[in-house]
Amino acid sequence: MGLYYQDDYVTLYHGSSVGDNAEPWWLADVLVTDPPYGIAWTKGQNNAAKSTAHAGIQNDQDTTTRDAALAMWGDVRPGFVFGSFRAPFPAGVKQTLVWQKPIDAGVVGSTTGYRTDTELIFLTGKHPKRPPSRSSVLASSGGVSRYRTEHPHSKPTGILEQLIEWTTGTVADPFAGSGSTLVAAKALGRKAVGVELEERYCEIIAKRCAQGALELEWTA
């Protein structure tokens, strides 16, 4: 693993987040991450939907990599972990939130008339006790073009900001992907450390962070 990008708020490493050579991202204060779900996701070419083929996400064949990272994180500090209904849940889940995607999401692969436009967010570890003042459904408005990047599973920074703003301290994302967690943390004036296995996505993250990543989407 090596240092790929760093500024006053964001530190990004290129390499694996698990294993003997991993940098100590697990020393942060809060985990906000979008790991491989363990569903062996791939995507075929769909010209009608303007969707290009994708061979899949590394380490997505099962939940081994996700679970190894969560074991390194432990159950003392709060975690927000995106995931799928179609894979085993992480151990020790305290509650689940639902991300409701935009109106044009979840069309590809749907055959029943109902879009596949929701994903789970698992709450792990210890979270502060608060009055129940927020909905467990986090909704995105606008279209997917507002947050789409070259990474096939980009998340809106507005959704990440909603999760991060109720926490304190340094944010960790050991599966940084397109960098939305890191960009959201920086926008909130928070320190963040990320790890990304694929260099092509590290390049996307570095560009977004260096440019300030002015996001156009907003959340309802």
Structure description:
This protein has helices spanning about 65-75, 155-165, 180-185, 200-210; strands spanning about 1-5, 10-15, 30-35, 80-85, 95-100, 120-125, 135-140, 170-175, 190-195. The chain is of the alpha/beta class and about 220 residues long. It has one domain: Rossmann fold (3-Layer(aba) Sandwich). It has a 9-stranded mixed β-sheet with strand order 1-2-9-8-3-4-6-5-7, with helices on one face. Helix 2 packs across helix 3. The chain is globular and about 45 Å long. The relative contact order is 0.23.
Question: What do the pLDDT scores average to?
Answer: 88
N-to-C CA distance: 38 Å
DSSP helix fraction:
10-25%
- Return the CATH topology: Rossmann fold
CATH architecture: 3-Layer(aba) Sandwich
Reading the helices and strands in chain order gives EEEHEEEEHEHEH
Summing up helix and strand content along with how strands pair, one would put the structural category as alpha/beta
Q: Sheet bearing the most strands, described?
A: 9 strands, mixed
Enumerate how many helices there are, as a single number: 4
Query: CATH homologous superfamily name?
Result: Vaccinia Virus protein VP39
Number of strands: 9
The portion of residues forming beta strands comes to: 15-25%
Our count of domains comes out at 1
